[in-house]
Design goal:
- By secondary structure, the chain is mainly alpha-helical.
- It contains 4 helices and no strands.
- It has helices at residues 5-22, 26-43, 73-96, 100-114.
C-alpha cells in the first residue's frame, strides 16, 4: 500500500497555519491557505460525465463518496514550484505596470512558499 505524502505535508501546513494565525502573520496565513487549497484542488478526482444529470443523494451516501487522489513527493514538489513560479510571474507583471507594492507582496509570498519545497527521495 502506498502512502499519501500529501497527508503529512498538509498536516505540516495546517500546523504552520495555526502558528501564523496565533502570531497574526497575515501574509503567511494567506500563502498557506492558498497552498492548502491548491493541494486540495490537485487531489480532486475528475468527474467526467457524471454531472450530466443531477441526482439528490443523502449526506454521506457511499455511492457518491470517492477517495481523494494521492499525491507523491514529486507531484507536491511540482505543485509548490508552480505556485512559486506563478507568484514570481505575477510580481514581474506588477513591476512592469508600476505596482511595486503588489510585486513586493507577491515576491514575499514566493519566499514563504520556497520553505515548503519538498525534495524528491
Amino acid at each position: 500500500m502506498t502512502t499519501d505524502e500529501s497527508q503529512s505535508f498538509l498536516a505540516l501546513l495546517k500546523a504552520d497555519l495555526r502558528t501564523a494565525m496565533r502570531a497574526r502573520q497575515s501574509a503567511e496565513i494567506t500563502v498557506l491557505r492558498e497552498l492548502i487549497a491548491a493541494i486540495d484542488n490537485a487531489q480532486a478526482v475528475p468527474v467526467g460525465d457524471r454531472h450530466d444529470t443531477y441526482v439528490l443523494h443523502a449526506f454521506g451516501d457511499a455511492a457518491v463518496e470517492v477517495p481523494r487522489k494521492a499525491l507523491s513527493k514529486d507531484e507536491l514538489h511540482q505543485l509548490v514550484e508552480a505556485e512559486i513560479r506563478s507568484r514570481n510571474d505575477a510580481a514581474e507583471a506588477c513591476r512592469v505596470h508600476g505596482r511595486e507594492d503588489k510585486a513586493r507582496d507577491l515576491s514575499h509570498g514566493a519566499e514563504i512558499l520556497s520553505r515548503y519545497l519538498i525534495h524528491p527521495v
